[in-house]
């Protein structure tokens, strides 16, 4: 029997507790979960890809060994094929997410119908968390400890101090 490999793609700028929830739960659905850290030209990243790779690796280090962190800058389906993935894992928070993710899943299926997209609902307590909002709250001096790990909060604080 072949190994079930899933890809969980994202910018993870920064990695939130919501992302970690999806990673933990998703890692139980596959033999290997590849976290694909990518750029998104439509977003203004706070952290470089290298910084985000380090952040994600550090935060998933305590998870089972079936989680791997890989950088990619290509079409998601090409990346999934390069990882021998059979599944794309995506987290959903709200109706707005569903509409976007539904469209993306449809396009991805047109590109490669051998790779399934699987959606996991975010834990109810984590549904409002969005990286974009975490950055905005932090920029205005708000508390972000309910949304990210202490080490990610420290990364954000250091980044904001450098930029000041």
Structure in words:
It is built from 6 helices and 5 strands; from the N terminus they run E-H-E-H-E-H-E-H-E-H-H. The protein has a single domain, classed as 3-Layer(aba) Sandwich (Rossmann fold). The longest helix has 17 residues. It is globular and about 50 Å long. The mean pLDDT is 92. The chain is α/β, with parallel strands linked by helices.
List keywords for this structure.
Rossmann fold, 6 helices, globular, 5 strands, 5-stranded parallel sheet, 164 residues
Helix-strand makeup class: alpha/beta
Low-confidence stretches: none
CATH architecture label name = 3-Layer(aba) Sandwich
CATH topology: Rossmann fold
Largest sheet: 5 strands, parallel
Number of domains: 1
Q: Count the beta strands.
A: 5
N-end to C-end Cα span: 54 Å
Q: What percent of the residues sit in helical stretches (DSSP H or I)?
A: 40-55%
Classified by CATH, the class is Alpha Beta
The coarse overall form would be globular
H and E string: EHEHEHEHEHH
Helix and strand arrangement:
Layout: E1 5-10, H1 17-27, E2 32-38, H2 49-60, E3 67-72, H3 76-82, E4 87-92, H4 95-111, E5 116-121, H5 131-139, H6 150-163
Parallel strand pairs: 1-2, 1-4, 2-3, 4-5
Summarize the structure.
This protein has 164 residues and is α/β, with parallel strands linked by helices. 43% of the residues lie in helices and 19% in strands.
């Amino acid at each position: 029997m072949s190994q079930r490999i899933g890809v969980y793609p994202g910018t993870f700028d920064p990695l939130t507790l919501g992302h970690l929830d999806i990673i933990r739960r998703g890692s139980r659905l596959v033999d290997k979960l590849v976290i694909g850290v990518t750029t998104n030209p439509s977003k203004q990243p706070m952290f470089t890809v290298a910084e985000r790779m380090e952040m994600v690796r550090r935060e998933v280090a305590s998870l089972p060994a079936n989680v791997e962190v890989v950088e990619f800058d290509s079409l998601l389906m090409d990346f999934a094929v390069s990882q021998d993935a059979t599944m794309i894992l995506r987290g959903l928070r709200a109706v707005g997410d569903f509409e976007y993710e539904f469209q993306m899943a449809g396009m991805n299926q047109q590109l490669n119908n051998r790779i399934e997209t699987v959606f996991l609902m975010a834990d109810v307590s984590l549904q409002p968390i969005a990286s974009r909002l975490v950055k905005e709250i932090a920029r205005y001096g708000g508390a972000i400890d309910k949304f990210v790990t202490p080490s990610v909060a420290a990364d954000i604080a250091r980044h904001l101090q450098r930029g000041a």
